[in-house]
Amino acid sequence: MIRTNALTKQFPGHKDGSAVLAVDRLDLQVEEGQVFGFLGPNGAGKTTTVRMLTCLVGPTSGDAWVNNLKVGRDDTDIRRSVGLLTETPGLYDRLSAEKNLTIFAHLYEVKDVRGQVEKYLRMLGLWDRRDDLTGNFSRGMKQKLAICRALLHEPKVLFLDEPTSGLDPEAAKLVHDFIAELKAEGRMIFMCTHNLDEADRLCDRIGVMKQRLLVVDTPQNLRRRLYGRKVVFHLRRADLPLAELVRALPFAREVQTVELATGSKMVVGLDDPEAQNPIIVRKLVEAGADVQFVGELRYSLEDVYLSLIQASRGNSEHRGKAL
Amino acid sequence: MNKIQVIIDKEWAEVFKNRLVLFTVILLPLFFTAMPLVILYATSSNAGNSDVMDMPPQFARICGDLAGAACTQVFIVSQFMLLFMMLPLAIPVAISAYSIVGEKTTRCLEPLLATPITTIELIVGKGLAAAIPAIVATWGGFAIFAVGAWFIVTNPAVYARILDPMWLIAVLVVGPLMAVAAVNVSIIVSSRVSDPRTAEQVSMVVIVPLLGMFFGQMAGLFLLDTQLILATAVVLALVDIGLVYLGVEMFQRETILTKWK
Question: Is the distance from CB of B177 to CB of B135 less than 8 angstroms?
Fold first, then answer.
């Protein structure tokens, strides 16, 4: 479990002596077994937050707990109980894959060093390359080896900073599958990423950060909070006054129609589509419409993310103002 | 396995695959050990000759009962032995420049710092990894020199002067103290530079005082004796304490990750 309370980090960065605010009063709670996606633009404070939670840098103010251990007081114990995949793999290029992992297994006080090293090298398909120098590895192999390194001591909490950055789709898929496996094992995964599709597919909850935390919720709820729920009705005939019919319904928030070559598409904003869709379908059919199919309109997480970030910049023209 | 041992093992496994470091650790001691032996060999054939080369008059005075050429032999060897003391300075600088700045530039430090290793364990591990080869090379080189000189020098009085307590203190005590100073200077320099070669070059400033002693003695400004070497050891010990304090202060996780560019 991770909990932060007004966690703040300032760096003495400017020449005039003023501080750079990297993280501003972050309040966050991530439960065991969750995959938490931490999104935000470059310089938003994501990596600084991870560094504070892994006790690499100390907070300027506020508190944080990881696995019920307090940051700033139980730092060595926290480091022992978490795994960190840094933004760059940071491997020793002149050493073999096995040697790289063996060093870290000793530093993480792993009891069965050889066993754990073999387990993860095999799991990520690197066993046959164990004697090769990591300097000769591809970016994907290095990333996989860095993931092995973060898992050697079986941490309950895993921090992944850009886990699939620079990986080809095949390697990225392998990492995604592996993250899903780790989640199934009940580990908590705290993942910084710019890959919104990855976050959407893997994360139970998402936090969007820009110095301060803009929002935290499930990907689905974020969409709903920002855009509401919208249902698309595909109709064969477009010449009927169907839009007016639906607009007359008290629960239809917003009705838009789009003419298509094969008919028309009507997008209706609804609060409770499960209960309200049958009513609309009935009305449409009674009015003589041929309803081809009905589906919920899905916004991408990218839409949500961009709205939030632009809203945080004060862009009042953007839909993010709805938040 | 002790974490300090792990760091030393890791440093050696990595650093000794670097040719520049290997060159410094192997060839430099060979050169500095061979030079005084060659000088001894070249001058031993003239040991009976009463001609003496120009040397500071104070040195000639302390030669006591040694004949002129034998005194010259002792003088020349003393000069080269001073240069030999460059080993405990140059080797740690070469190693730590790569083990610290190199690790910083390859971004290996962050994963390392994320492990449960303490800052002291890390700094001691890295420091020992740099200092031990220097001390071994210095002591080993001196042992080879002592054995070689025993075969070359025919005059027992000259041999006794070459291996007098002053040089034993210099090699056994001052050498390790110099190595500690060099390691800490490297750590301090590492916080300001981003390239291992620059770090090595800047850190090499530690040999300036030694060169000062070399030229000072040659010019007759002072004469190395046991007291001066002991005084040097005391001063170095104090300097080391200050440098270790500074080094540890600068080798903090947060400083390394956020300020080391």
Answer: no
Nearest Cα to A209, choosing from A40, A22, A53? A40
Task: Count how many residues are written for chain B.
Answer: 261
- Tens-digit pLDDT profile for chain B (261 aa)? 699 999 999 999 988 888 878 888 888 889 988 988 888 888 776 655 545 555 566 666 666 677 667 777 777 777 778 878 888 988 888 888 777 777 878 888 899 999 999 888 988 899 999 999 999 999 999 999 889 988 888 778 788 877 888 888 989 999 999 999 998 888 888 777 777 778 778 878 888 888 888 888 777 777 778 888 899 999 999 999 998 888 888 877 787 777 665
Amino acid (one-letter) located at B4 = I
Q: Which two tokens stand for residue A137?
A: 């590895």
CB contact B54 to A (< 8 Å): no
Test B17 with A94 for CB contact under 8 angstroms. Answer: yes
Mutate to test the interface with A, among B106, B119, B261 (most CBs of A within 10 A): B106
Nearest to A249 by CA among A270, A264, A228, A229: A270
Domain end, chosen from A189, A217, A245, is at A217
Q: For residue A317, what is the domain's CATH number?
A: 3.30.70.920
* Cross-chain residue pair A106–B6, CB shorter than 8 Å: yes
Same domain, A247 and A278: yes
A88 CB-near residues (< 8 Å, 6+ apart): B107
Which structural domain range is residue A75 located in?
2-217
Q: Which amino acid is at A257?
A: T
Whole-model pTM: value is 0.80
Nearest to A84 by CA among A103, A108, A114, A118: A108
- Planar angle of CA B1, B6, B12, nearest 5 degrees: 140
Residues A50 and A179 in one domain: yes
How many alpha carbons fall within 13 Å on the CB side of residue A112? 6
SS percent in chain B: helix, strand, coil, step 5: 80, 0, 20
